[in-house]
From TrEMBL:
The keyword Repeat is annotated on this UniProt entry: yes
Domain spans labelled TIR: 11-179
Classification via InterPro entries: Apaf_helical, Disease_R_plants, LRR_dom_sf, NB-ARC, P-loop_NTPase, TIR_dom, Toll_tir_struct_dom_sf, WH_DNA-bd_sf
Keyword Disulfide bond recorded: no
Xref: PROSITE patterns: TIR
Species in which this protein is naturally found: Cajanus cajan
Keyword annotations from UniProtKB, A to Z: Hydrolase, Leucine-rich repeat, NAD, Plant defense, Repeat
Domain of life: Eukaryota
Main enzyme class: hydrolase
Record's catalysed reaction(s): NAD(+) + H2O = ADP-D-ribose + nicotinamide + H(+)
Stated name of the protein: ADP-ribosyl cyclase/cyclic ADP-ribose hydrolase
EC number from the UniProt entry: 3.2.2.6
One GO MF term: NAD+ nucleosidase activity, cyclic ADP-ribose generating
């Protein structure tokens, strides 16, 4: 345990013990001595010394050099001139040096010591009488004052404890507390620590007294140990039992012994792991305990120290630091704090404190300091190491160090970081790490996983392990990232294999090394990956023969590189080919790509992928984006495993091969900005595995087939700025699509359903042109109305899109009411209030006939027209029940309620809508649907706009078949654009009486 002990603070000893040997040595003091030693307290006890003049000098030095003095006041203490002289010296140090003094009243009363009375006083008086005879008046007076003073100090009284063992435990605990023996040494410059520590402490404080386990996770050098020490120092005094255990490089039994010994403050011997687990559980169970386990590297360590965690009782806290978050998940800790890199301001301050002993760099070093800080990437370890290395050095040295760091990383930093890499027991995980740090930083995780799986590296678990061990990270948009210093570490590991001959390294990425190998033909079978990125304006040409010896090459990345000669020289082990700016019109047939997982030929000059179809059984990803000369896709029959087809911004592409419909594993098609593409092959709609379809910017595509619903896995459809004018009806009935961007609609489909429905129900063209003769009513069974399910409504309206009407059956009146409210929200706009300004507009009527309505229609129409011409109010002119051919029911607003009469035979009905006319809004233009609600039978019938323009006999039969004598019915007529409906009436046309 690191502490602010005597050896670190100028003191010689932690504790000086003054006692009278005859009555305490064999029992109490020997026990106390062992306990203090076991607890790591540096103690001076004089019984080990022989008496003599030299001894006196040693004792004086020991007293003066101790942080604390323990005075064991026994009965015989007052009879020893030696002890009393020690007490006087201790008292002097207390006054002059601030030494702490703690009295231990061993079988004596503090009052007897204070007043020199009782048995203690008798022994003291005997000694004083003898000394006075020798003229030692001043010395006797000093003894008396010292005894009185020490007796007034707070101490321990043996009479208050059941045993010496209990007394000793209390003394050791008091010493730890008073001397801050377990106060841990932390960094000299705790920049940014307080806010980070507070997050963890806040969590601990909010546990309401229950036990908790907290994990601190991050890469090497990120400050995990520093934060853990800071937390320990902040909260340790709340706990009687506490310890800070460094777990790295310790065996399991050694760890158990260390934990027990430090927390119990006595040496403990453990003979087996099982015994250690049992001892930890028994000794700590029920105790408020604080334990920090620093730098845990394997789960077995946690099992040995924490067991099943049942002993972590109320109020106990365990803090674990590790580079491997999986250990924390396996232990099921309560909270994980992830270490993040320091921001730029914190980094500059921490570096400046070490390099300049100031919060900011001096002006003439400002730019150099910022360059070093940028190199460190917010890693505290690197900032401290480089800051301490550069302190008081010249600018020329600083510049030299920066140049050196570009070639060779700092050894001290790399030593710490490499622990994580060396801790990988699986060589496949090491290969994945090295591949990522050389070729795949910034690439999509799923993309990299596919490629490395194709290399046989088991990347699904491998990448997960590397993330858990803080060696790589997943950043925004699922891209793989890595701390710059870890990347340097990985590349340095590769360089170590062959400093002189780059052709013998496993991976090449540094341009100078790659150019050297390709121009001198020095490549070897050791090369597994090669990357050469040239500028757009530079296209160096190399011979394909330069690859002839690279038989193990599996990863190839070339940007704007020209290759001449026989492409058959390239490795047959290739799994990833990324060749931006590929200059040929076709991929040569002798370029063996049979094992390739991903082909990326962005910005290529390809016209066709191949002159004749190729069979690539393993190919999963094909990216030909920005290939401006590409005129058609390849024949896909030879690419059965293809999962992602990316042809973004290929302006000459005019044909997608019909064989695309045979790709059973295809997940993504991206045809964005393929401006010459005018249609999609019908076979494409058969892709049942497709999840994402992107057609944005395909200006000539003017139709999406209703068959798109066959794409049963499609979740995302993005088709902005294409010629399609109407969302296919089948889109809304899709069970998979979650997001669309089409015809001006963008967002989650579930939210857009109402707007899309409006576009179907109120088309811009003449409604009469949309009347179709499909008879019948689509019938929907009982539906769950509890949550106004949009999926159900989507089904309802998708049925309405290809039927004249739809019938919805509900189970209860409550469900009926809920569903009716939702449907009305979908199909009508908010009704405007009747204002004085609206009164200035004229009243108009609109008649809708259903079934056999002609018999009384002329008379009804004439009566309404005459009433409108002579009345300002619609309350007086609507005809009532005074005509032999109808029964009349009226209602205010946009609905009318009636009960089906029992004494007549209905032949039809006429709906009359009286509304306020404006130049902008007429009923013909604004009408959307007629909704008939049967409260008795709990059903709803909806007739869409093109139907209500022209009802027919079939429509009437649908209505009358669901109406019974005495049924309670309400009819709603819904409008858009804020049309104000004043009144509605329904006229039930009848023939002969049923009486």
């Amino acid at each position: 345990m690191s502490s602010s002990s005597s050896s670190n603070s100028g003191w010689i000893y932690d504790v000086f013990v003054s006692f009278r040997g005859e009555d305490t040595r064999k029992t109490f003091v020997s026990h106390l001595d062992a306990a203090l030693s076991n607890a790591g307290i540096n103690t001076f006890i004089d019984y080990r010394l022989e008496k003599g003049a030299e001894i006196v000098a040693q004792l004086v030095r020991a007293i003066q050099g101790s942080r604390m003095s323990l005075i064991v006041l026994s009965l015989d203490y007052a009879s020893s001139r030696w002890c009393l002289d020690e007490l006087v010296k201790v008292r002097q140090c207390d006054r002059t040096d601030g030494q702490m003094v703690v009295p231990i009243f061993y079988d004596v009363y503090p009052s007897d010591v204070r007043h020199q009375t009782g048995a203690f006083g008798e022994r003291f008086k005997a000694l004083v009488d003898k000394c006075l005879l020798q003229g030692m008046h001043h010395q006797c007076s000093s003894w008396r004052d010292a005894l009185t003073t020490v007796a007034n100090l707070a101490g321990c009284n043996s009479r208050n404890f059941r045993s010496d063992g209990e007394l000793v435990d209390q003394i050791v605990e008091d010493i730890f507390r008073k001397l801050d023996m377990d106060l841990l040494t932390i960094t000299e410059f705790p920049v940014g620590l307080e806010s980070r520590v507070q997050q963890v402490i806040d969590f601990i404080n909010h546990q309401s007294g229950r036990g908790c386990v907290v994990g601190i996770w991050g890469m090497g050098g990120s400050g995990k140990t520093t934060i853990a020490k800071f937390i320990y120092n902040q909260i340790r005094l709340r706990f009687k039992r506490r310890g800070f255990i460094e777990a790295s490089n310790r065996g399991h039994i050694d760890l158990q012994e260390k934990l027990l010994s430090d927390v119990l403050r006595t040496k403990v011997k453990v003979h087996s792991i099982a015994m250690g687990i049992s001892m930890i559980e028994k000794r700590f169970c029920g105790e408020r305990t604080l334990i920090v386990l620093d730098d845990v590297t394997e789960f077995a360590q946690l099992k040995a120290l924490c067991g099943n965690c049942k002993w972590i009782g109320v109020g106990s806290v365990v803090v674990i630091t590790t580079r491997d978050v999986r250990l924390l998940k396996l232990l099921e800790v309560d909270y994980v704090y992830k270490m993040e890199e320091m921001d730029e301001n914190e980094s500059l301050e921490l570096f400046s404190q070490h390099a300049f002993r100031e919060e900011k760099p001096s002006e003439d070093f400002n730019e150099l300091a910022r360059n070093v800080v940028a190199y460190c990437g917010g890693l505290p370890l690197a900032l401290e190491v480089l800051g301490s290395y550069l302190i008081k050095r010249t600018k020329k040295v600083w510049e030299s160090v920066l140049l050196k760091l570009e070639k060779i990383p700092n050894y001290q930093v790399q030593k710490i970081l490499r622990i994580s890499f060396d801790g990988l027991s699986d060589p496949l995980e090491k290969d994945i790490f090295l591949d990522v740090c050389c070729f795949f930083i910034g690439k999509d995780r799923a993309y990299v996983t596919e490629i490395l799986n194709g290399c046989g590296l088991c990347a699904d678990i491998g990448i997960t392990v590397l993330i858990e061990r803080s060696l790589i990270k997943v950043e925004k948009n699922n891209k793989l990232g890595m701390h710059p210093l870890l990347r340097e570490m990985g590349r340095e590991i590769i360089c170590e294999s062959s400093r002189i001959e780059p052709g013998k390294r496993s991976r090449l990425w540094f341009q100078k090394d790659v150019l050297d190998v390709l121009t001198r033909n020095t490549g070897t079978e050791a090369i597994q990956g090669l990357s050469l990125k040239l500028r757009f304006t530079i296209k160096d040409c190399f011979e394909a023969y330069a690859f002839v010896e690279m038989k193990g090459l599996r990863l190839l990345q070339l940007d704007h590189v020209l290759l001449s000669g026989n492409y058959g020289y390239l490795s047959k082990q290739l799994r990833w080919v990324s060749w931006q700016g590929f200059a040929l019109k076709y991929i040569p047939n002798n370029f063996d790509l049979k094992g390739v997982i991903a082909i990326d030929f962005k910005h290529s000059s390809l016209r066709l992928l191949w002159k004749k179809p190729q069979v690539l059984q393993c190919l999963k990803i094909l990216n030909l984006s920005h290939s401006k000369y590409l005129i058609e896709t390849p024949d896909f029959s030879g690419l059965p495993s293809l999962e992602k087809l990316i042809l973004k911004d290929c302006p000459s592409l005019c044909k997608v091969h019909q064989s695309i419909g045979d790709l059973r594993d295809l997940l993504l098609i991206n045809l964005k900005n393929c401006t010459s593409l005018s249609n999609l092959p019908r076979e494409m709609y058969k892709l049942k595995s497709l999840k994402t379809l992107i057609l944005s910017g395909c200006l000539k595509i003017d139709k999406l087939e209703e068959d798109i619903v066959q794409m049963e896995s499609l979740t995302t459809l993005i088709a902005e700025n294409i010629a399609v004018k109407q969302v296919p009806f089948s889109i809304v009935s899709s069970k998979s699509i979650g997001y669309i961007s089409l015809c001006g609609y963008e967002g989650p489909l579930r939210i857009l359903i109402p707007s899309i429905i409006w576009s179907w129900m109120s088309p811009r063209m003449n409604p009469l042109s949309r009347i179709h003769s499909i008879p019948g009513t689509s019938s929907l069974g009982p539906m769950d109305m509890q949550n106004n399910d949009l999926g159900d409504l989507a089904l309802l309206f998708s049925n309405l899109s290809n039927q004249r009407s739809v019938l919805m059956q509900c189970d209860t009146k409550f469900q009926l009411s809920k569903q009716l409210g939702t449907i009305l929200d979908f199909t009508k706009s908010e009704l405007t209030s009747y204002t004085s300004q609206v009164l200035k507009h004229s009243l108009e009527s609109y008649l809708i006939g259903i079934g056999s309505y002609a018999q009384g229609l002329n008379s009804l129409s004439r009566s309404i027209s005459e009433g409108l011409a002579t009345n300002e109010s619609c309350d007086d002119f609507l005809p009532g029940d005074n005509y032999p051919h109808w029964l009349a029911y009226t209602g205010d607003g946009h609905s009318v309620y009636f009960t089906v009469p029992e004494n007549c035979c209905m032949k039809g009905m006429t709906l009359c809508v009286v509304y306020l006319s404006t130049p902008e809004n007429t009923a013909t233009e604004c009408l959307t649907s007629v909704i008939m609600v049967n409260y008795t039978k709990c059903n709803i019938q909806i007739f869409k706009r093109d139907t209500v323009i022209s009802f027919n006999d079939v429509d009437w039969q649908c209505i009358i078949s669901h109406l019974g004598l005495g049924d309670e019915v309400e009819i709603f007529v819904t409008f858009r654009h804020g049309l104000v409906v004043k009144k509605m009436a329904v006229y039930l046309m009848y023939g002969e009486s049923v009486l």
